[in-house]
């Protein structure tokens, strides 16, 4: 089994859905502090998101890479915004500057209005077909400095030479989505496939479809995409405090109507299948599985990653382990107070999950905190659970 890795999301300032700061610019001090906090707390990746009205991910990503040592930078990229030969060089340049720490996450585009803001008027199926062609061009551009001629439906060029090569020969490609075309393209071409947090049953169904697409493309079982699943954990010392905190967050989300969206939203129903799925699942009940909470989905119209996990450290660790057992390799966790939540996850959640997995591998029976279960609630592998949880922000 591949090691479980953790992802956060980096924004250029402390603007959040709970405390909006309209028009806030880049806060360099915050950006550096946040990036270093992720690095110091053993996150593996951070996503630099993209929106038509947002800051440039490449510039932010270069800043994050410059002030960190281990953290991998996931650059979100919409094919309509950059010609693939240019993207191949820019990504490879950043990869060299960061000593091989770059990943690219493709966004085909799930909203016609948002795509039109930057001159993209293709249909959804055409956007996915363009993305498929784009990825193939990048792969070829990174593979060799030999001249490339390309004549496709969306891109045509002659005698392109790329002398800017990735450190490890290529750059991992991530694809997300919940439509048949997303499964097909991601299953065939992606190194990573991103999903939003759905219940275990529905997540397993999506993983099966991604794997089936990979198999149909002739990929070996050990070459299938890694699965990335995203949650918005709400953490507190006890279950009671966590649920109180969750309802306070929900009240603010409703008040702010999802606050500062990555790109301007609309009151219309979402066009992308992923958001539609979340809203349909929300109709089945507020809490699903151990602690998957859906009112945050309905409060924000499912625009972006919005499913919460609510509970004490043990509950959240157990919930994440359920998804690891399902086959999820990458766990994205971002809260509603980006910086402080990242610190709390780094202190209580990430080490707890890793300890539990390590002790499983060594044949030690543990509870959800990765603490050996001896039946007496005594400290075995570090601090007692109550002591560890006491400092969590309510």
Q: Outline of this structure?
A:
With about 400 residues, the chain is an alpha/beta fold. The chain contains 13 helices and 13 strands. The longest helix has 24 residues, at about 340-360.
Give a quick set of tags describing it.
394 residues, alpha/beta, TIM Barrel, 8-stranded parallel β-barrel, two-stranded antiparallel ribbon, globular
Task: Give the arrangement of secondary structure elements.
Elements lengths: L4 E5 L18 H13 L4 E4 L8 H10 L5 E6 L6 H14 L4 E5 L5 H5 L7 H20 L4 E4 L4 E5 L12 E4 L3 H10 L2 E5 L3 H17 L9 E10 L3 H18 L16 H10 L4 E2 L3 E2 L1 H6 L7 E4 L1 H14 L3 E4 L4 H24 L23 H5 L5
Parallel strand pairs: 1-2, 1-13, 2-3, 3-4, 4-7, 7-8, 8-9, 9-12, 9-13
Antiparallel strand pairs: 5-6, 10-11, 11-12
Helix pairs in contact: 1-2, 2-3, 3-5, 5-6, 6-7, 11-12
